[in-house]
């Protein structure tokens, strides 16, 4: 079955964006609701960002941002992008790579995401459900990164000396 999903894993980017602070000024501003006058005086994020970003040296290794959204309806997302309501998504998808992927039945998030993260099927990565039996206690426990029988792409990148954030 073809599942409407994109290899571009948006979850990582969203988590990174939420985890990245923009400094004390923004933290203080976030603690109080802005007035409508204050909102109109705030410059767009892009105006501040562009001038502060350092250019990567020519020939430097390009970073990879892998984003995934579980259950996202891409028909809605693509329609909103086409209507100009999601310009940042349109740019991200246009400058990156997106595709439709085939999935395994039943479509369970742990199976699908582990397959995407490892590049191998459930018969090899061994994640088959949301839970597994702990061999020490015999109790069902949630699966984790320790449940995989093969490394994920971020494990491989890290082992190769690349900086990784998950």
Would you kindly provide a written description of the structure presented here, covering whatever features stand out?
- The protein is mainly alpha-helical.
- The chain contains 9 helices and 4 strands; from the N terminus they run βααααααβααββα.
- The chain has helices at 10-19, 24-31, 36-41, 45-52, 74-82, 87-95, 109-118, 122-125, 153-159, and strands spanning 2-3, 101-102, 131-133, 140-142.
- Strand 3 (131-133) and strand 4 (140-142) form a beta hairpin.
Notable features of this structure?
166 residues; 43% helix
Beta-strand segment tally: 4
The biggest beta sheet is recorded as:
2 strands, antiparallel
Question: What's the order of the H and E elements?
Answer: EHHHHHHEHHEEH
Distance between the termini: 28 Å
Number of helices: 9
- What is the topology, as strand order, of the major beta sheet? 1-2
Please tell me how large the radius of gyration is.
Answer: 20 Å
Task: Look at the structure and give the mean pLDDT.
Answer: 75
Which helices and strands occur, and which strands form pairs?
Blueprint: E1 2-3, H1 10-19, H2 24-31, H3 36-41, H4 45-52, H5 74-82, H6 87-95, E2 101-102, H7 109-118, H8 122-125, E3 131-133, E4 140-142, H9 153-159
Antiparallel strand pairs: 1-2, 3-4
In short:
Helices cover 43% and strands 6% of the residues.
């Amino acid at each position: 079955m073809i599942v409407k999903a994109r290899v571009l894993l948006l979850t990582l980017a969203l988590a990174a964006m939420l985890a990245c602070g923009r400094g004390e000024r923004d933290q203080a501003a976030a603690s109080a609701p802005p007035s409508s006058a204050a909102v109109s005086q705030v410059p767009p994020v892009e105006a501040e960002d562009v001038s502060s970003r350092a250019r990567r040296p020519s020939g430097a290794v390009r970073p990879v941002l892998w984003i995934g959204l579980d259950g996202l309806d891409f028909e809605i997302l693509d329609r909103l992008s086409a209507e100009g309501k999601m310009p940042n998504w349109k740019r991200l998808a246009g400058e990156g790579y997106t595709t439709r992927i085939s999935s395994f039945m039943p479509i369970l998030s742990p199976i699908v995401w582990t397959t995407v993260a490892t590049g191998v099927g459930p018969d090899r990565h061994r994640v088959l459900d949301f839970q597994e039996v702990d061999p020490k206690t015999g109790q069902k426990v949630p699966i984790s990164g320790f449940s995989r029988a093969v490394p994920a792409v971020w494990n491989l990148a890290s082992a190769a000396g690349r900086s990784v954030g998950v």
